[in-house]
């Protein structure tokens, strides 16, 4: 059994869970806060906040550099987070996990340490129209330096990847394929296992952006069959500046370091330097130790609830929110895939996204407006921006009702 499946509650007690998140009790502009910006960053439970606090109060020291007790305690907690992450995503070994500042650093690590040394003129990197900029721009940068190109696979109007077209585009010139597990704008869940299977047949490594998947569903990298899986901690209850890159052992062993400095070496001499074994050869400098202590606590929190319960509740919220939003005149939904996570992007006819988000904030509702770091997707739909309401397991149906009431009020003001 995956560790994420343990300790399932018989009833999902959302009010008890909400009590674990101090910020959810805030008022904003004299209104109770409704936090629907979880795809941007999640709120943090008390256990995570206290883990970071305790680290700084009782265990603060650098890792892997001292034999005194504080150093040993800090190192044990930091490396313990790596162990928890390895179990969390079912990695074969803890040494397959490079601890990073988040998905963006993880993507750039693959771009410069894996892709760039292998690319040449005429090669290509395959990605999709629905990707976050972090799964586009690094590939463009290394393509410019190597003479390669970046090819985007298309989507349909429902916001679903046209999988057969993606497969057709896996031509011999493609040296790396990329896809998001869950779209940060549309909530679309892509068929990663199917894509990975076809990539393996062609000998093409597959990188998956898991930023929006890990907060909502169990992730098993062995079952998925991809080569690289990148994700971010702050979207999964953890402090900012945390994340990881999972990669197959053979890739990490073959990749040169991207960053150079302390703690990623065996020996430094002016006639040559030898590097540490993976993953440490990719972890130069002092890491965000307290942040990863918090990430370890976040994993404990997820496991105390269980992803089956989390996923079931979030799917109820998604269905209810979608149903309620359809009641609003002139509202256009973006992303109606058959399989989705609780991310809803929309516009209301005659209203600008930023104006609506500003007025919703005055009603206590926090949503995201803008292009969501997905310019090509906005271009596909022919809009400059959308509003995005992204839910988490600590949200409620009552919050959705209040959100719809606020939307109707804002719509009336702007019409």
TrEMBL record:
MF-aspect GO terms: cysteine desulfurase activity
Main EC class the enzyme belongs to: transferase
E.C. designation(s): 2.8.1.7
Keyword Transferase: yes
PANTHER family registered for this protein in UniProt: CYSTEINE DESULFURASE, CYSTEINE DESULFURASE 1, CHLOROPLASTIC
Cofactor: pyridoxal 5'-phosphate
Name of the protein in question: Cysteine desulfurase
Family note: Belongs to the class-V pyridoxal-phosphate-dependent aminotransferase family. Csd subfamily.
Keyword Transferase: yes
Alphabetical keyword list: Pyridoxal phosphate, Transferase
Gene3D superfamilies: Aspartate Aminotransferase, domain 1, Type I PLP-dependent aspartate aminotransferase-like (Major domain)
Record Pfam families: Aminotran_5
Entries under PROSITE patterns matching the protein: AA_TRANSFER_CLASS_5
Job description of the protein: Catalyzes the removal of elemental sulfur and selenium atoms from L-cysteine, L-cystine, L-selenocysteine, and L-selenocystine to produce L-alanine.
InterPro entries: Aminotrans_V_dom, Aminotrans_V_PyrdxlP_BS, Cys_dSase_SufS, Cysteine_dSase, PyrdxlP-dep_Trfase, PyrdxlP-dep_Trfase_major, PyrdxlP-dep_Trfase_small
